[in-house]
Amino acid sequence: MSGITIKLLAEKLNLSTATISKALGDSHEISDATKQRVLNLARELNYVPNAYAGSLRRNVSKTIAVLVPEVADSFFSLALNGIEEVALAKGYHTLIYLTHEKLEREQAILKALAGGRVDGAIMSVTAETNIYDHIQEFNRQLPVVFFDRVCEEIDTAKITTDDYQCGYNATQHLIEAGCRKIAILSIPNNNLSIICERIKGFKAALADNGLNAEDGDILYCPEEPGDSYNFIKEIMFSGNPPDGIVATVEKLTTDIYLVSQQLGINIPKQLKVVCFSNQASVNILTPSLTTITQPAFEMGKAAATVLLKSLRNNELIMKEESMVIPSILMARGSSVG
Length: 337
Known about the structure:
One of its GO terms (molecular function) is DNA-binding transcription factor activity. Residues 4-58 form the HTH lacI-type domain. This is LacI family DNA-binding transcriptional regulator. By secondary structure, this protein is α/β, with parallel strands linked by helices. Helix content is 43%, strand content 15%. The protein folds into three domains: 6-49, no CATH class; 60-161 and 296-327, Response regulator (Rossmann fold, 3-Layer(aba) Sandwich); 163-293, Rossmann fold (3-Layer(aba) Sandwich). The strands form two sheets. A six-stranded parallel β-sheet has the order 2-1-3-4-5-11, sandwiched between helices. Strands 7-6-8-9-10-12 form a six-stranded mixed β-sheet, covered by helices on one side. The relative contact order is 0.13.
């Protein structure tokens, strides 16, 4: 059946065209029962909305922006899949922007988008982001939702995981596995909320187990892969190397394994390792990698759901939509044995 219009749906359901339009747009003004009636008939008749015309009438683009530091990290790849799943189901397009961990690029992207090219943004800030005026300015015009890396200074929804507890659990796991000199490895910039929280959890676990500052090192690896390798090699080649490592980002995993292999360090007998990672390949490493597995896909879905909800309801109090989705410690061969 072709030529199905909102007017025809309205006539068949004895509803107004305005009600049909709002129901198809998932408006909070329409009851769930009515929405379901409309959606069922639309599916039955193969109704295809004219998204372009609808966007022009409502002065919206039906497009959302997503700003992420990178996509090589499996966390962001999975989160993007979650965002896309929700956006596509609601008839929205996504524009994905890579900031490459550069504050200047983040500022330029938000400035360009504020003119109305998108209806709102989902973002995870860069490692350089230590000023927030550009985000405040964007948020005055269009809604923004943070996920993973957030700015506490911005009064909006934040979708995070329990980073403090993750740092604590990873450290506690290594202590229970017999480690007494533990290092937490991170990227060089400590502005990020997620890194700060993980380090706080690390420190708390040491203190709760009677270990002092000398028993734990907070180490910031250089950005370049080759430099990180040499940095880790120096640590492990020193006279007092750690017997346990918590890696706060998954890209450090390769260098830890390569250094251990070159120096003849047995994982897990001489060095136990826990890494924040969502990589599917962790099970085929030798030994398999113990991970803090973050709910990346779920966080992406939640961020998109909140943003689209705000676009349907201008009176939504965004900060009340914030949520913390727990991560899971998956013990494997790199810390057991």
